[in-house]
């Protein structure tokens, strides 16, 4: 075990040096954004005594006359079409309750998943009885947000071959605001692992599976070989260090951090040390800015 | 310990990893995460320490009182342990939720420190049979990231090391009641001898015959049974306790005890070196919680 004194540890530093662009303005709740009243009020702001005030801590963004504040940290709100990773918390009649890192547990209906066997098969009583056979408590699923109901409850759907139960691997929870918005959420990274960047901040890392073997509700319990485990472990620690240093998490940044850590010959477990984490994070930011 | 509920796929990934000798975050079976320590974080206590082990965050304070000794131990000082599981650590600690865990933690600590070979409590005596020093050790669990027992024992040892008690002088007697004066010179102090204070090493049984140290919450989910071993700097085992439902193979148990002893001695040495280093720093700034 390595022991460090708190005063020896590096302080988390500001590492955003985007060249060429103006430094984004950071506001805290209650701070006056603009005295000018001609702007339109967007998300994260409110009017008080004729001036516009921030209601969350974050960056000010301006699109024409519309002012919004993008929060730095937030609870996942959900947006229709997002691909997210969730964990089944309850099996109920006709539906599953899914933990999606949000305020409420989301809902996945039996009719909204692609049942094994039939393409367009309707679900029957038999399927309802065998729901726990498909997904049980604790299982991880990759799903899509289909609808957001009035009270903020997310309704999920998995009506495609790419969604469904996730196989062996490891889950990492980061802040949802750190995940880069992207059309594609599942990436087979060149280093040899598959990463699902859930829009809700759950990142799942699994070994790559050949397309023809990917089946939606059965899990392959075959032992994962050591070299793939090493890749997954390194990826996990890299994503973790990016999250700790508030660097946006995308396939590019993760791959750079991964390559950086390999290049500097850090062992996987070394990446758990704060000073090494900061080194790799700095190097990654530099690489991304080039 | 926490309300994590892993899927079978994740569990088998963790278990297979332990079998292959590479854990999810790249550590081996007997690797600890990096520990972060700081003393003197609470200025109103006689001694305090904060210990972080990845996400596990423990604050320990030691306060001194003058009290009556137990009738059967007239010259022994008293040590009281109180563990508080903050609801900030996990939501399930809310209300009375953390009581069971707190009781088992404080009972374990009390057992470990009850032996005369670990801490010489006769040094805490002021007037034999009448007045002794009582140490109130408060342990606050701020965040749960696995391996609470080890973190707490390290925190207690660190806090006891940092404890500075003002010297007491008997100035006179008034109608059978003794009068004391408490020295207010900050250099006229008594320290506690922690050269024999033990620490706890937890071995978690993940699968048949294989144990790991310093488990993460995910790993704690996979192994129901653990053995907690208290080791002194000299390598003596002063207490062992098994937690959880499950069994240990005799060979596994002996191997765990042996490796706990070796690991314990190493950690003791490193801890002492770091604490001495911290004490010698002339203008150390307390990092605290910000």
UniProtKB/TrEMBL annotation, chain A:
Any Pfam family: ECR1_N
Signal peptide as annotated in the record: none
Major localization listed first in the record, in broad terms: nucleus
- Annotated GO CC locations: cytoplasmic exosome (RNase complex); nuclear exosome (RNase complex)
Q: Tell me the GO BP annotations in alphabetical order.
A: CUT catabolic process; exonucleolytic trimming to generate mature 3'-end of 5.8S rRNA from tricistronic rRNA transcript (SSU-rRNA, 5.8S rRNA, LSU-rRNA); nuclear polyadenylation-dependent rRNA catabolic process; poly(A)-dependent snoRNA 3'-end processing; regulation of gene expression; TRAMP-dependent tRNA surveillance pathway; U4 snRNA 3'-end processing
Q: Which UniProt keywords apply?
A: Exosome, RNA-binding
The molecular function GO annotations come to: RNA binding
Report if keyword RNA-binding is assigned: yes
Entry's family note: Belongs to the RRP4 family.
| Designated name of the protein | S1 motif domain-containing protein
What is the species listed in this Swiss-Prot or TrEMBL entry? Penaeus vannamei (Whiteleg shrimp)
UniProtKB/TrEMBL annotation, chain B:
Q: Any idea which UniProt keywords this protein has?
A: Cytoplasm, Exosome
Cellular component aspect of the GO annotation? cytoplasmic exosome (RNase complex); nuclear exosome (RNase complex); nucleolus
Q: Which GO terms describe its biological process?
A: exonucleolytic trimming to generate mature 3'-end of 5.8S rRNA from tricistronic rRNA transcript (SSU-rRNA, 5.8S rRNA, LSU-rRNA); nuclear mRNA surveillance; nuclear polyadenylation-dependent rRNA catabolic process; rRNA catabolic process; TRAMP-dependent tRNA surveillance pathway; U1 snRNA 3'-end processing; U4 snRNA 3'-end processing; U5 snRNA 3'-end processing
**Which compartment or compartments is the protein found in?**
Cytoplasm; Nucleus, Nucleolus
Q: In which domain of life is the source organism classified?
A: Eukaryota
Read off the Gene3D superfamilies from this record: GHMP Kinase, N-terminal domain (3.30.230.70)
Which InterPro entries does the protein's record reference?
A: ExoRNase_PH_dom1, ExoRNase_PH_dom2, ExoRNase_PH_dom2_sf, Exosome_comp_Rrp42_subfam, PNPase/RNase_PH_dom_sf, Ribosomal_Su5_D2-typ_SF
Extract one GO molecular function annotation from the record. Answer: mRNA 3'-UTR AU-rich region binding
Pfam families linked? RNase_PH, RNase_PH_C
Q: Does the keyword Cytoplasm apply?
A: yes
* Record-annotated Exoribonuclease phosphorolytic domain positions: 32-166, 198-260
Protein family: Belongs to the RNase PH family.
PANTHER family (alphabetical)? EXOSOME COMPLEX COMPONENT RRP42, EXOSOME COMPLEX EXONUCLEASE RIBOSOMAL RNA PROCESSING PROTEIN
- Kindly provide the name given to this protein in its UniProt entry: Ribosomal RNA-processing protein 42
Q: Which organism is it from?
A: Penaeus vannamei
